[in-house]
Amino acid sequence: MIPCAKQRWMAARALYESDRPALDQIAALSGWSVATIQARAKREGWRREAPVAAGEVEARVARVVNGLLGEIEALGIGTGEGAVGLDKARIEAISGLMRTLEKIGDITRENEEAKAKEKQNKRDADMAGFLKRIDERIVELATGYARELVRKKPAE
User: Fold this and answer.
1) Which of 34, 42, 32 has the alpha carbon at shortest distance from 3?
2) Which residues touch 8 (CB under 8 Å, ≥6 apart)?
3) Mean pLDDT along residues 58-71
4) Exposed (0-12), middle (13-18) or buried (19+): which is 143, by Cβ within 10 Å?
5) Where are the domains of the chain?
6) CA triplet 37, 45, 62: central angle to 5 degrees?
7) How confident is the model over 91-126, as pLDDT tens digits?
8) Residue 78 region, left (φ>0) first, then alpha (ψ -120 to 50), else beta?
């Protein structure tokens, strides 16, 4: 089945805005020219997200977490005169926000664990390289010493 023009444009837009494929790739996929795709993207305001730097991701997550914590605090019980009790809607809102925070924490921990594992693998590879060079040098020195012993061997 050949997709209709609307479906092809939806697919082209999704590609354009997501993984940053080249425009010629989108053109090949969709059957439209690069100029046509550029014109439509400009006319409809398609946006290509810039690649996010590693440090920026953590800062963005921190901002989201701070915002969610602020919302949870705003929904809080409060104390003293004029304190607001928790109704079912507030409890559900707090519960939903807490689940979101837990998911963000899980994702953040997974990223940190992956980074730590990557660092450890790099350290292991570096250490393996050092040990290999040491081993090669030991063999080189032992071979040289053996040659010297053979050369200096007294005549029998």
Assistant:
1) 32
2) 30, 31, 32
3) 74
4) exposed
5) 5-44, 54-127
6) 120
7) 777 777 777 777 877 777 777 788 888 889 999 999
8) left
Q: CA triplet 96, 110, 51: central angle to 5 degrees?
A: 90
Which residue in this structure is represented by tokens 């707090």?
94
Q: Hey, what amino acid is at 10?
A: M
Closest CA to 105 of 69, 73, 72: 69
Which pair of structure tokens corresponds to residue 137?
A: 């040098």
Q: What is the pLDDT of residue 75?
A: 66
Give this prediction's pTM. 0.34
Yes or no: say if 143 and 151 are a contact pair by the CB < 8 Å rule.
Answer: no
